[in-house]
Design a protein that fits this description.
The complex is a heterodimer of chains A (123) and B (110).
Chain A lengths: L3 E4 L2 E4 L5 E7 L3 E10 L6 E7 L5 E2 L8 E7 L2 E6 L8 E10 L1 H5 L7 E2 L3 E5 L1
Chain B lengths: L8 E5 L4 E6 L8 E7 L6 E6 L4 E2 L4 E4 L5 E6 L8 E8 L12 E6 L1
The chains are: A mainly beta (123), B mainly beta (110).
Chain lengths: 123, 110
């Protein structure tokens, strides 16, 4: 239980186009989702926190108009990178915490479960 | 979140116990110690967490000092698949945003 699915796992796009990344909680209700970005040989950097039905809270320095986050349901959050440029090439990772039998039975509560990540390459 | 300090890298022989230390001297009374690991090019994986008592699960053991200022993650019998970056994080819980430090890169050697 407590599985987070992230799609796509890898995407290549042309500069100026937009890319949407999906993050789904498969067997629990993700009341809170987090989006991270990771550059090569660096640690994860939190981009934003989203609660279901609310606007996302962005970390300082993250452009909210460029990185659009939607968390309209308890099982789905999306990150859209608008007008992508080569400097946006990175590894994007989502995580989720929430409620539900499978979530609480998997090592208990208060755990963030992570997706497998999306590698974005902007040409 | 309280700041954590971990060694940059460690080696461990396959089959031996891997002991990964973490200092968190500014931890507050209601903050938990969490450990995650990230295998190359994958999303982080939860390992274990605790408040003040030692914890054990099928993956690892977590030893927290009495003053809670440091902890040690123990992988009892390291395998090559345990090669990863291990992150020690102090936070109020899973609903709270967390800050990932640089972690410890554990290399398990055959």
């Amino acid at each position: 239980g407590a599985v987070v699915s992230q799609h796509p796992s890898w995407v290549i796009c042309k500069s100026g186009t937009s890319v949407k990344i999906e993050c789904r909680s498969l067997d629990f209700q993700a009341t809170t989702m987090f989006w991270y970005r990771q550059f090569p040989k660096q640690s994860l950097m939190l981009m934003a926190t989203s609660n279901e039905g609310s606007k996302a809270t962005y970390e300082q320095g993250v452009e909210k108009d460029k990185f659009l986050i939607n968390h309209a349901s308890l099982t789905l959050s999306t990150l859209t990178v608008t007008s992508a440029h080569p400097e946006d090439s990175s590894f994007y990772i989502c995580s989720a915490s929430g409620t539900g039998a499978s979530y609480e039975s998997s090592q208990g509560r208060d755990i963030q479960y992570f997706g497998a990540g999306t590698r974005l390459s902007v040409l | 979140d309280a700041k954590t300090t971990q060694p940059t890298s460690m080696d461990c022989a396959e089959g031996r116990a891997a002991n990964l230390p973490c200092n968190h001297s500014t931890i507050s009374g209601n903050e938990y110690v969490y450990w995650y690991r990230q295998i190359h090019s994958q999303g982080p994986q939860y390992i274990i967490h605790g408040l003040k008592n030692n914890e054990t699960n099928e993956m690892a053991s977590l030893i927290i000092t009495e003053d809670r200022k440091s902890s040690t993650l123990i992988l009892p019998h390291a395998t090559l698949r345990d090669t990863a970056v291990y992150y020690c994080i102090v936070t109020l819980g899973g609903y709270q945003k967390v800050t990932f430090g640089t972690g410890t890169k554990l290399q398990v050697i055959p």
